[in-house]
Amino acid sequence: MIDGFYIPGHSPLHRAAAGFKFLALMLVCALAFLIDNLVFSVALAFAALCGYAVAGMALETAWRQIKPVLFFLAIIFLIEVWLSHWLHAIHIVVRFFALIIMAALVTLTTRASDMLDALESGLRPLRVLGINPAAISLALSLAIRFVPMMAATVREVREAQRARGVDKNPLALAVPTIVRTLKMADDVAAAIDARCYDARK
Amino acid sequence: MIELRNVCFRVDQRHLLANLNLQLSERRIAVIGANGSGKSTFARLLNGLLLPSEGEVRVEGLNTHQHGSDVRRLVGFVFQNPDNQMVFPTVAEDLAFGLNNLGMGKAETAQRVDAMLESLGLGGFGERLIHQLSGGEKQLVAIAGVLLMKPQVIVFDEPTTLLDLKNKKRIAQEIAELDQQVILVAHDLDLMANYDRVLCFDQGQLVRDGAPADVITYYSAQCG
Question: Burial level of B182, CB count in 10 A (0-12/13-18/19+)?
């Protein structure tokens, strides 16, 4: 999950506007489902892999993005074989593979702040409905920032439990993790206040 | 100058701080006391992160009740755990957060962030992921985030507690070199030997207020 963060670079993909990359990704996703063709999906996957080369990233980086979802792709493949046909199953999996590594490529070549700026701009028309785009943007930023911290918290609690002889007890893991997370949330809220954030802006 | 008039702070009828009357004008002020003595509550009252249950806190005449955001521009705050202080994944993005909140443009923000990182010996750290920094580097970035907002006063809440000796010395050096008024909450008594004034809290009461030699001697005796 941590590999999904921005990797600095100066490639054309890094320099492209975040909003443009988002729109392009949405368009490609729509096309992938509208054009129900295996050759098109394979071409998309190939184009996505070429994108990694353009961004100056090794294919290993693409592999790291797809590795965590391989299990789910395998499940989808088996279900499709069972319900439909093996050729259709391959098509579905190739389509998901292409879209996942393409979406990952966008996050790997776009700073979180640029992504959030683009999101904030895109959500601005929703202000008339009383929705605060800046608040949504900050919430997403915090979600990105605290993924590794949450993982570290879970790891520390698990180690502490093991040190005391408790192994594989979901409740023993959940309670201290939740308590620590709530305490952290209090501190983070105070820190955001201390840095002059105005939720009404 | 920060002024506290008849300040009390309660949670569920429990007094965490009682009847404080203080004027804080010295350039270097330290705050000591046992865990749970009210030090951190006191620190959070100074920039309006907490509001007093009774009495008032004024910073340059501004009441923290009515002018919270103006007070927070004047009084920066560095927390004990820098991990909880930073909200963006990379160093440059996080440092830009405070300046963006002040309404500064992108170009000037980027320029100031780069200059600040250089001045703290963190040149080239802008694109680094915060969760991959060492504890000392994280605390330096947290301090940089506060310094960029050019506060008149900086409150440090146990900034060296989670650091190893080398990083502790580095942070202490950075704090010592600051131009701003510093209010330092700490357990490390070495950090405050040259301070102008030390406040000692015990169970929500200010029990000693004076020169470091006097207050630290008193506190050390209390700790046995």
Answer: buried
